[in-house]
Amino acid sequence: MDTAQRLRLYYEACIPMGLLVLGMFHYGFPPFDDTTLTLVPGLLMCIIITYYLYDRLSSNTDDTHVLPGTQTSMYRRRADPGRMWGGMLVPLVMFALNIDDASDEKHGVGLGACGAWVLSVAMAWTFTVRLSGLSLGCSWALCVAGILALALAGPWERGNTGVHVCLVAMSAIAQHMGTQFVVRKLPRSFTLGEAAAIAQGICLALLDLAAQLFTRKQGLVDPQHMCVLVLEAAGVGTALIVCVLYMAPRHSQGVSVKDTVWMCVAAGAGAGVTTSIIAFVSGANPMRWIVLAVLGSQTGRIVLIYWFMLMTCATAIYAWCAQTPTSSSKLMLHIKRKSYHILAVLLFAPAYIATPLVLHIGFTIALCVFVCAESVRVLCLNGWGTQMTHFMRRFTDARDVGLVVTAHFYLLVGCAVPVWLDNTRGCVEAALAGVLALGVADTCASLVGLRFGSIKWPATVKTVEGTGAFIASLVVAVECMRWAKGFGYDTASGYDEMPGYGLVGSFVVCVAMGVLEALTDQNDNLVIPLTMYAAVKTLIHSDTISWVSVVVVAAMLAVPLIPHSTLIQLHSVL
User: Fold this and answer.
1) What's the pLDDT tens digit per position in 152-170?
2) Which of 43, 392, 429, 559 could serve as a FRET partner for 53 with CA atoms 20 to 30 Å apart?
3) What DSSP assignment string belongs to 448-465?
4) C-alpha angle 59/64/68, rounded to 5°?
5) Cα distance between residue 358 and residue 343, in whole Å
6) What backbone torsions phi and psi does residue 463 show, to the nearest 5 degrees?
7) pTM of structure
8) How many Cα atoms occupy the beta-carbon half-sphere of 179 within 13 Å?
9) What are the distances in angstroms from CA 115 to CA 92, 106, 110, 553?
């Protein structure tokens, strides 16, 4: 690997790691009181950060290690495996969620933000150790030591040590098995880092739902907790639908009555499980709560009418495009792909400004529909698979060569996850991180870079002109949304205008995201929205930053100035 490629990978890693270092030193490392993040998770994350920084600069950055039980051919080709993102992305997001979220701990609902942070560190620790190249005995010893340390010294209620050990161990084992399952069952669709991040996120959601099933705070039907419960229960119901469809017998390519029956049975089973879980945990009628949340206000009804009109027009336009001859122009392909990003802005930004609750529920329903439709396409049920594949391949690129077409999933998830994490609290910069970064900035960067780009970044196909367009458009979009939402903070939800934040704060976050978009080989629809969410929470929700953390980040950026021969000698010694 040449120097330019090594530096590109290193500075890509510096962005999420720098954010985590800034946050840990300022908010909870060392811990300030019993409610903040504890010392052990912070220490383990510092070890993980140090390992990945060293790994990115060492001579072994080709990343030849793969997850045990998988093969290199199972991962998405022509992309950096992204081990660093598998060990950093979810802990970074969970830490950012912890900064101002203590509501779950107060009510005793689910894992809570701090519990989710500890479990994400456990998953990141075991993922990193297993891929570090250590001997089997040494890696198992480090994994067990980390699990015990987190279980014994984590921010838990005292007296349930056995339960905590089982919970942390279960999360570590589940993420390993989940990553293997994603890579093996959906070959060539994900990089290692993307598969690990997806598996970790699903594991956290399932463990949180399990914790809610055991705690059962019936009568607690406030919008924040119900939105999370509906999302997690709908995920379980959708997984059941996919399993039932997978067991359906295969028939001819045409329309089959048996396929239709299996689809109806699957839909009924999934809906039944979803509503049963919601009713069991909350004691509320789930259908009545959803209908009242969406249609109970005039604003919600207006948003639904707006969505219907916009989707009708968009469907007519895409149907017309499907009938036109396919153009081989790279610019036309980008325009077609980015039209979905523009549609996402038109759909989601006004809806969040009007009613975040309706958008939260809408994203949940949309994800379930996407998963079920992709299952029908992959399994070729009822003869629809071929038609859906033919339509979707008109909008795909070299990254969508695997079994699953991931472009539309990443776009939806990238826009939805920040909204789900914000959970109707009203922080517009954090909640709309995905919508603005993907719908506005990424679209401008792609089109400007392809049409006018001439100066390329080292070791990448991205252009400086495209990065400039990304940064400028994102700054403008963020400021427009802050203005539309009353400076981005809903005082009724507990947010006040933070001192010292303005255009400079927006510019710092947007520049970091622009550089990340230019450097990363991962799917930017996944990593950029989540990193921007963490950046907003870490940098904007603070009027001061620890000078110690600034010095640490500056040292990280200066490490590449060390002669490579010295790094090779250090690598041989270690």
Assistant:
1) 876 666 557 777 888 889 9
2) 429
3) HHHHH---BPTTSS-BHH
4) 140
5) 18
6) -110, 155
7) 0.88
8) 31
9) 14, 13, 9, 27
- Residues 127, 142: contact at Cβ < 8 Å? no
Percent of the chain with pLDDT over 90: 24
Percentage of the chain modeled with pLDDT above 70: 75
Q: Which residues contact 299 (CB under 8 A, 6 or more apart)?
A: 354, 355, 358
The letter for the amino acid at 366 is A
Query: Among 543, 513, 544, 430, which residue's Cα sits nearest to residue 15?
Result: 513
Lowest mean pLDDT among 30-34, 195-199, 541-545: 30-34
Mean pLDDT comparison of 31-40, 64-73, 205-214, 486-495, highest-scoring range: 205-214
**pLDDT tens digits, one per residue of 503-528:** 666 788 888 899 999 888 888 889 99
Mark 514-525 as b/e (b = at least 16 C-beta within 10 Å): bbbbbbbbbbbb
CA angle 521, 526, 530 (to 5 degrees): 115
- Distances 444 to 107, 165, 261, 564 between C-alpha atoms, Å: 43, 48, 45, 37
How far apart are alpha carbons 277 and 286 in whole angstroms?
A: 9
- Please provide the average confidence, as pLDDT, over all residues in the chain: 79
Length of the chain in terms of residues written: 574
Q: Which two tokens stand for residue 325?
A: 């001859």
What would the two tokens of residue 351 be? 């809806």
**Which one, of 426, 232, 220, 395, lies nearest residue 317 by Cα?**
395
What secondary structure letter does DSSP report for 253?
S
Count CB atoms within 10 A of the CB of residue 72.
12
Q: Which two tokens stand for residue 162?
A: 């056995």
